Amino acid sequence: MSEPSIFFSDVNERQGSFLRRTFVVGGLTALGITALTVRLAQLQVVQAEEYATLATNNQFNFRLVPPPRGRILDRNGVVIAGNRPSFRVLVVRDETKDLDQTLDLLGRLLPDTVDRRRAIIRDVNAAPRFSPVPVKSDLTWEEFAKVNIYAPELPGVMADMNEARFYPFGGSFAHVIGYVAKVSDRDVQAIKDRGEEVPQILYNPGFRIGRSGVEKALDSDLRGEAGGTRVEVDARGRVVAEDVGGSRPAVPGKDVVLTLDADVQNRALEVFGEESGGCVVMDIRNGDILCMTSAPSFDPNLFVSGVPTATYRALSDYERKPLLDKAIGGVFHPGSTFKLTTSLALLEAGVDPTERVNCGGGYRFGNRTFRCWSRSGHGPQDMHDAIKNSCDVYFYHMCNRAGVDGIHDAARKIGFMQTFDIGVGNQKTGSIPSRAWKAEYNKDNPNPDSRTWYPGETLSVAIGQGDVNVTALQLAVMVSRIANGVKALQPRLIKSVGGVDRPSGAAVPDLPFSREHMDVVRQGMVAVANDRSGGAYRQSQLGLGDIQMAGKTGTAQVRSYDNVASRSSSSVGWALKDHNLFVAFAPVDAPRYGIAVIVEHGGLAGSTAAAPRAREIMRTVLLKDPEMRARIERPLPPAAEGAALGDDEAFGAAPEPDAPATTVQTPPRAAPTATTGPRPYLSEPR
């Protein structure tokens, strides 16, 4: 057994170890104090201003304030799109303890929010932090008061008053003005795709942008500049005070003045009633559009806060398409109104307007007989009579003297196949066939004959059928240029933006047609509306003193009438009825206004539906004109007292057939030539 060993430590050795540990710990402590001192010096001296700014930003937030949207006014200063006060309730996600519970409590106060719960949660979750999200707008005073009473029990819920877009005339301007709606992800992405910076105001959940019409086209001008409110917040981001001095007011959007007249626009929609179609009225002196109506319409106020799905589906599924702008976005066969353009093409091709064609009710071309609308025929017709009676046979017989390319060129010069810079999009160009057009249209067809134009196809083009498609705006431009007779007028819809006037539509080159040729066409239109045998005599009497209107009717078929005994539309469905059209200008002796009316599926003959409506709209336009009103109120000269209109005629009604004739005196025309050929062979109806 070994003996235990006893070890004795040296005192000097232990003291040396202690001193080493003290030196290491002391050095580390000194190094830490030195680093802390340097850091404090950096924070308090070098970066003092930077951190003071950060501290202030933590204490104060700058919240964007949406600007008031600019107003849209008519030519007389009447507000047709403005802003109105609106109570609303908002939710701030970061201030709620439980969003679901908060929405449950809110649903008891505002039951209609229950149906929109999923959409509300989606909007709240997508909003930036501490950003108020509108849950419901246009609260009644009772609802607004109720929310404020229960506000202490609804954390994160607040009610306030803001400005909402308002359209006082409802559907009268719905298509031309458009409407505003919430900003979508596609709107933001479209801005990014253009390489532009997305304005921060677009991320505000309550902000609205233009979705269609003028609201969309001039959105950047109407939008204005966002302001900001500087508010003091606590550690949780809740507002505790507002710094008025640090706030910046929003800059309202610019006011936009249109050339439209609210009274004429309202009257146009009124006279359409339940019919479908479009109407455009132009001032032929400067191109100003006084009316651009599409019927049926819709209430754009429904779209401001978000239209219910059921309502939108009802509008989109209705066969008369109230969401479609039929003035510029719908194309129609112009029917016989296009004969005015065909006449100009024939005159440009050297056709003598006094040359006569015998109309026996049909025209034989090749192995087919093309029927005139009058089965019994019109007899001998020159160009004046053919326009007055809307004789199809005359234009069948003459059209290939100009050819389809000649008609195409005249149509382009008079205003077809183009869109106009009126400040709004969604315009259709329509189509007027030509040889090149057919070749391009059928370029993928393996049959080479499909790309060849045949003279027989020109017959349908000459009377505004076949592949001829136009808009109401193009028809209004056509009739306005014919009535003006000199200038190739351009339509103007935007009168001024922010007080800066837009160019006049009269600052344009002259028309490439001779004045003599324009006179021939105008005199034919005068006879249509004022000669007792004209196609729209009874429907064109304005009853406004000595002011008369000149016009041209049109009927565009939408189905084949082969082997059909009658073209009466009384027994067919709405979608199978013919379109009704009427173009006109007034006054006859000093043209001032042009009008084009299309009644979609209005029935047989343009004089039955379109002409009476055009007359009522034109009456409103003339009565609104101070010079025209003075002329109307001026007493007739003594020599005309015996020829003054009777009581019935004062309201636009034509005299009975046995009453004395009051036809317009037209300049004498040269003696007609002999008929161009034997009476055509008649065949089955077209």
Automatic annotation (TrEMBL):
<feature type="domain" description="Penicillin-binding protein transpeptidase">
    <location>
        <begin position="277"/>
        <end position="618"/>
    </location>
</feature>
<dbReference type="InterPro" id="IPR001460">
    <property type="entry name" value="PCN-bd_Tpept"/>
</dbReference>
<dbReference type="InterPro" id="IPR005311">
    <property type="entry name" value="PBP_dimer"/>
</dbReference>
<keyword id="KW-0573">Peptidoglycan synthesis</keyword>
<dbReference type="InterPro" id="IPR036138">
    <property type="entry name" value="PBP_dimer_sf"/>
</dbReference>
<dbReference type="Pfam" id="PF00905">
    <property type="entry name" value="Transpeptidase"/>
</dbReference>
<keyword id="KW-0808">Transferase</keyword>
<dbReference type="InterPro" id="IPR017790">
    <property type="entry name" value="Penicillin-binding_protein_2"/>
</dbReference>
<keyword id="KW-0812">Transmembrane</keyword>
<dbReference type="GO" id="GO:0071972">
    <property type="term" value="F:peptidoglycan L,D-transpeptidase activity"/>
</dbReference>
<dbReference type="Pfam" id="PF03717">
    <property type="entry name" value="PBP_dimer"/>
</dbReference>
<dbReference type="GO" id="GO:0008658">
    <property type="term" value="F:penicillin binding"/>
</dbReference>
<keyword id="KW-0472">Membrane</keyword>
<keyword id="KW-0645">Protease</keyword>
<dbReference type="GO" id="GO:0009252">
    <property type="term" value="P:peptidoglycan biosynthetic process"/>
</dbReference>
<dbReference type="GO" id="GO:0009002">
    <property type="term" value="F:serine-type D-Ala-D-Ala carboxypeptidase activity"/>
</dbReference>
<feature type="region of interest" description="Disordered">
    <location>
        <begin position="637"/>
        <end position="686"/>
    </location>
</feature>
<keyword id="KW-1003">Cell membrane</keyword>
<dbReference type="InterPro" id="IPR012338">
    <property type="entry name" value="Beta-lactam/transpept-like"/>
</dbReference>
<dbReference type="GO" id="GO:0006508">
    <property type="term" value="P:proteolysis"/>
</dbReference>
<dbReference type="GO" id="GO:0016757">
    <property type="term" value="F:glycosyltransferase activity"/>
</dbReference>
<keyword id="KW-0961">Cell wall biogenesis/degradation</keyword>
<keyword id="KW-1133">Transmembrane helix</keyword>
<dbReference type="GO" id="GO:0008360">
    <property type="term" value="P:regulation of cell shape"/>
</dbReference>
<keyword id="KW-0328">Glycosyltransferase</keyword>
<keyword id="KW-0997">Cell inner membrane</keyword>
<dbReference type="GO" id="GO:0005886">
    <property type="term" value="C:plasma membrane"/>
</dbReference>
<keyword id="KW-0378">Hydrolase</keyword>
<dbReference type="InterPro" id="IPR050515">
    <property type="entry name" value="Beta-lactam/transpept"/>
</dbReference>
<keyword id="KW-0133">Cell shape</keyword>
<feature type="domain" description="Penicillin-binding protein dimerisation">
    <location>
        <begin position="65"/>
        <end position="242"/>
    </location>
</feature>
<dbReference type="GO" id="GO:0071555">
    <property type="term" value="P:cell wall organization"/>
</dbReference>
<keyword id="KW-0121">Carboxypeptidase</keyword>
<protein>
    <submittedName>
        <fullName>Penicillin-binding protein 2</fullName>
        <ecNumber>2.4.1.129</ecNumber>
    </submittedName>
</protein>
<feature type="compositionally biased region" description="Low complexity">
    <location>
        <begin position="639"/>
        <end position="680"/>
    </location>
</feature>
